Amino acid sequence: MRKLVERCVYALSLCLLLLLLATGAFAQGKGHGGGGGGGNAGGPPPGAGVDRGLGNASTHSNGGSDDGLNNASTKSNGRSDAGLDRARRASSHLDQADNELRDHPGIPRALHTNANDLRAGYQAALATNPDLKFGNYVAATRLGQNLGSRFPNVTRDAILNGLASGRSIGRTLQDLGLSEHQEKDARKRVDAELKAARQ
């Protein structure tokens, strides 16, 4: 019975994370396109995120939802709290990415994509690594584009996997076959390209 409860709590946490990501994707597609050069990224409305509705749920259920959240946390030994924390971190990073895309519309163009697709790719990556910063996602994308023809192992996904395991971009590039000199040159080139895109 305990295992069944733990599985249910885990499934609930996963559903909350997916709901968060789906909410962001829905808000993205709702009239916030990248028309006129793909400059605006759109994104969820202010105040949207994992916790949106939790306060209302408590009021509308006369505190019943609070009991449910507390029970989920207790019966899962804190795993449901950890799931919500992951979702909150991912939501915060996604909000920062929205700001960056609004302030620097040249970034998607530098990556040969548009703001909506770049945001959607980053959102998908956050489901695996909620601590992934948008700047690292952008750099991994451009490094994969620049290096992939000479180093087939160097892809955005391979770099993101390295970051998710706690390695730096430089260490990951060396693990994927670049020499220290090559990885430094590659990162320097990407830094210059992205700096120009932000101007």
Describe the structure.
There is one protein chain. This protein is mainly alpha-helical. 72% of the residues lie in helices and 0% in strands. The protein contains 11 helices and no strands. It has helices at residues 2-29, 35-38, 54-60, 64-75, 79-103, 106-110, 115-128, 134-147, 156-164, 169-175, 180-198. Helix 1 packs parallel to helix 5 (79-103) and helix 1 (2-29) runs antiparallel to helix 7 (115-128). The longest helix is centred in the N-terminal third of the chain and has 28 residues, at 2-29. It is globular and about 60 Å long. It starts with a helix and ends with a helix.
List the helices and strands and how they pair.
Blueprint (H helix, E strand, L loop, with lengths): L1 H28 L5 H4 L15 H7 L3 H12 L3 H25 L2 H5 L4 H14 L5 H14 L8 H9 L4 H7 L4 H19 L1
Helix pairs in contact: 1-5, 1-7, 5-7, 8-9, 8-11, 9-10
The fraction of residues in strands falls at under 5%
What is the succession of H and E elements?
A: HHHHHHHHHHH
Calculate the mean pLDDT score and round it.
78
SS class: mainly alpha
Question: What labels would you give this structure?
Answer:
mainly alpha, single chain, 11 helices
Short account of what is shown:
This protein is an all-alpha fold.
